[in-house]
Amino acid sequence: MHGSSILATPAGCAANAVELRKGPNGRWSVASTLPGIAGMCVASVDIDTDRAIISANEPQNYDATAYVRIFERSASGWI
């Protein structure tokens, strides 16, 4: 969690992560979707200021090599 944003994934083998942002009414809503790695399950996520990281593994082999995607927030969204 960073400020009013949190990065999360749905349960199970998620293909993407979502950034949730807390609104002034106290409710959380999806602010953006960060794509995972094709054919992989998102294993963990982290967010810090203007950067986010997603690690992913093969669906049936969590002991295999992990792959990561690193994103940076720009004026138009995550790149």
Main sheet characteristics = 4 strands, antiparallel
Instruction: Count the beta strands.
Output: 7
> Mean pLDDT, nearest integer?
90
- Helix content range of the residues, please? under 10%
* Poorly predicted segments: none
- Following the backbone from N to C, one meets helices and strands in this order, namely EEEEEEE
Number of helices: 0
* CA-based gyration radius: 13 Å
Cα end-to-end separation = 19 Å
Estimated structural class: mainly beta
Q: What percent of residues are in strands? A: over 45%
General shape: globular
- Strand order, sheet with most strands: 4-5-6-7
Oligomer: single chain
Provide structural commentary:
With 79 residues, this protein is mostly beta strands. Helix content is 0%, strand content 56%. The chain has no helices and seven strands. It has strands spanning 5-8, 16-22, 28-35, 41-48, 51-57, 67-74, 77-78. The strands form two sheets. The protein has a four-stranded antiparallel sheet with strand order 4-5-6-7, with no helix packed on it. A three-stranded antiparallel sheet has the order 1-2-3, with no helix packed on it. 16% of the residues are buried.
